[in-house]
Amino acid sequence: MHRRITVLTLQVLRNPPITPSQKNPIYSQFNPFARGANGLAFFRFFSFSPVHRRVPDSDDPANLMKEDGVSVCSQMWIENFKEPDRLVSNLTSYLRRFELWVLAYQKVCADEIGSYVPRSSITRSALEDLLALRNAVLDNRFKWGARLEFIIKSPKDKTEYESLSKRKIKAILTTTQPAPFQDKLVQEVLFMILEPIYEARFSQKSFAFRPRRNAHTVLRVIRRNFAGYLWYIKGDLSVILDGLKVGLVMSALMRDVRDKKIIDLIKLALVTPVVTSPVDGEEKKKKKKRKYQKKKVLAEDEPKPDPYWLETFFGFAPEEAEKLPSWGHCGILSPLLANICLDELDRWMEGKIKDFYCPSKSDVIWNSPEGEAEQGNTSWPEFVPTSGPDKTRKMDYIRYGGHILIGIRGPRADAATLRKQLIEFCDQKYMIKLDNESLPIEHITKGIMFLDHVLCRRVVYPTLRYTATGGKIISEKGVGTLLSVTASLKQCIKQFRKLNFLKGDREPDPQPCFRMFHATQAHTNAQMNKFLSTMVEWYRYADNRKKVVNFCSYIIRGSLAKLYAAKYKLRSRAKVYKIGARNLSRPLKERKGQSPEYQNLPRMGLAESIDGLQYTRMSLIPEADYTPFPSNWMPGHEKALVEYIRLDDPKTLEEQRSCIREQGLVSPQDYISMLVWNYKRNAIVMDQLSLDRFCNRCKYCNNLCPSNAFDVLCWLLGVLFYLYPTLAMLKHGGVIRLGRIGDGTLSKFYTLNL
């Protein structure tokens, strides 16, 4: 310390940086060389050392998180929906964004441990490992399917791989293992980058493995657009979901994406072999099961398995939704890659639909040359009036995963020609051999099975009312066909039999559900109620919703009655219903005279309440949902994106302004600008109309002021609606009209009379 003071003293005395001045008292007060300065100030001056600010480290994970990952993803969706047809060549910049890697870590951790991990809860070591994984991917050092050497591990993985025995290491290297945690992270990042690119390009005819496009959407589209079709081609292309050649997948991917690092990363995931266990399925069946299996105790951070009701409902998955593609080490990228490959088929079919359309003037419904306009009764789209002999030739197409459905309005020969062309297209594009049996042509009268629902036609004779010339309302009997979408009861019985809930074909007999034998009556009823609620939602758009749900309720109720009869030794279902009531809401273990009545037990906290089974009567089951489905439907998130892009476009703002001028209105922004400008230019004389309409001169200060309380209210409304450019305000006399601009028109929704 003394050496430091001495050196600094010599340097300062030789080259004094500050010249004392007697004229400035403030300077002399804080200057250690000034007269009257004490020794403490002198010591402080010479002991001062300059503070050097630390340069931020570019490799520090905290410095790399500049934005929120969700905002980065939102910007990607907006950019791709704004220009959906552009070639994407610079995706490595998004691959460098550390925010996306943190967001992927949060999503994968939620799947691994069953709970969401906030960004503030991620440890420093996890962020450093995540950064190392990102750098390994960018430097081409990342390897898919690692078994022992990991850059980052799952939070629940506590295994010390360095201390494993040779036997365990050999088992890890030669048997089937779940995908590594770091592979899932890379897959998630690639998925977040590629999904917005292709969602903006995918056809509106595909509905599987896409957000907000589920089986219910397919059924509603079929009810809306497939009315009046006579011939149907139902195709099974699920062979494509099992896997395609790497060259075909990469050529389909490079049609829109030209980033070399992304392409190489996905190609490496497809080419790298997946290690599977050498044990065959037959040898697995021959293995003896342990007689007594201990119950597995879950760890604290281990997610719970699916509950029984959800597992049972998954057993009802239709044939079209059973298969999920899994290609190499792509993981969650596999469904997206399958849709990318099958999108070429969708585009080819859209061209065929346009070429096939041939309108007829004598047709009642489809007679416009374009074929895109709303025609017929839009509130009852499944009804098609009977046309003459010359009908419009029309076709529609829909795809759910690897299954397609084509509806044709025309002769069967046209359907046969289209099937031949489809077989040739699949052979050339996907190198798969299809035949007439895999693409059957069926008439609507036989019933078309799709997603466990049957499409059939019924002839109806409704009373048609319309307004003739002169304003007369005419009612007359009509005839037409009605497209009916009904749930397949045969398929429902088949699924129940597969789950061991019943046996027998002609007269299904419920079987006891012994998997719930050790559960309480309250828990068992609650599980089955959740299952029945899910079944009611699954058959929501079926015409026979009440019938099929009533059958499901009968099977579940009979199965539980047999279970309770065996569990409580009541011998028959009739005795169970007698004690437990029709909905099994009464306790079956109650003994009279030894305990209070059951109604008082839940209040006393001595018993848990038992909910009765739902939908035990037909009147309790809701009706089918016939809500009209718009022809140009799109999911809610796509609507929001399109609307945001339209409002962000300067042309939209100019159209709104021109609409305001045409209507003679004043926007809140212009009104505020007018008021502020008029208040500021006091010296400039305004025209008499503006003075009379907006302002008067104050007799005290001679400034422009609001003429009365009415103008003050207008000014306040202008301030309130300043942030809403789609609002407009008109001031006329003692009336204020507020309106909203939408689609080039003004809709008045508020009027204030003062």
UniProtKB/TrEMBL annotation:
Extent of the signal sequence: none
All residue ranges annotated as the 4Fe-4S ferredoxin-type domain in the record: 682-712
SUPFAM superfamilies reported in the protein's UniProt record: DNA/RNA polymerases (SSF56672)
InterPro entries: 4Fe4S_Fe-S-bd, 4Fe4S_Fe_S_CS, DNA/RNA_pol_sf, Domain_X, GrpII_Intron_Splice-Mob/Def
PROSITE patterns: 4FE4S_FER_1 (PS00198), 4FE4S_FER_2 (PS51379)
Protein name per Swiss-Prot or TrEMBL: 4Fe-4S ferredoxin-type domain-containing protein
Species, as recorded: Hibiscus sabdariffa
